[in-house]
Amino acid sequence: MIDMQAEIFSTLAQINRDWFDRAKSEARLASELFAKLTAAHSVPDVKAAYQEWHSQRMQMFADDRRRFFSKSQKFMELGLRFLGNGNPGATR
User: Fold this and answer.
1) Looking at the 3D structure of the chain, how many domains does it have?
2) Residue 79 and residue 83: Cα distance in Å, rounded?
3) Is residue 24 part of a domain?
4) What is the pLDDT of residues 54-78, one digit of tens each?
5) Other beta carbons less than 10 A from residue 57's beta carbon
6) How far is the C-alpha of 76 from the C-alpha of 29, rounded, in Å?
7) Using CA atoms, how far apart are residues 23 and 38, in angstroms rounded to an integer?
8) Contact (Cβ atoms closer than 8 angstroms) between residue 67 and residue 18
């Protein structure tokens, strides 16, 4: 039971670190967009800056989705182990 709690805590801590890193990446991306828009001298420059920003955001969303499903699966596995008292063949 203690090992399971430690594993749950570890998973939650990793999720927290992932979201903190995601927030930092989001702030960095916004800052880069602002710098590019400030330096833009033409409409094509603005368009290119927004296209690059949008492409990077879509990649971040894909990464978020992948992480979410991975962590959700891990929680479900932990829950099933808890319900089975750590015995893979046990059912309630």
Assistant:
1) 1
2) 6
3) no
4) 999 999 999 999 988 988 888 888 8
5) 15
6) 33
7) 23
8) yes
Q: Using DSSP, state whether 24 is helix, strand or coil.
A: helix
User: Does 18 reside within a domain?
Assistant: no
The Cα–Cα gap between 8 and 4 comes to: 6
Instruction: Please name the residue ranges forming H helices in the chain.
Output: 2-39, 43-83
Assess if residue 90 is contained within a domain. Answer: no
Is residue 11 a contact partner of residue 75, using CB atoms and an 8 Å limit?
yes
Contact (CB, 8 A) for 30 and 52 = no
Within-domain flag for 17: no
Higher pLDDT, 5 or 50: 50
- Summarised one tens digit per residue, pLDDT across range 6-60 is 888 888 898 899 899 999 999 999 999 999 999 999 999 999 999 999 999 999 9
Question: Domain range holding 57?
Answer: 37-79
Q: Is the distance from CB of 84 to CB of 91 less than 8 angstroms?
A: yes
Amino acid (one-letter) located at 62: A
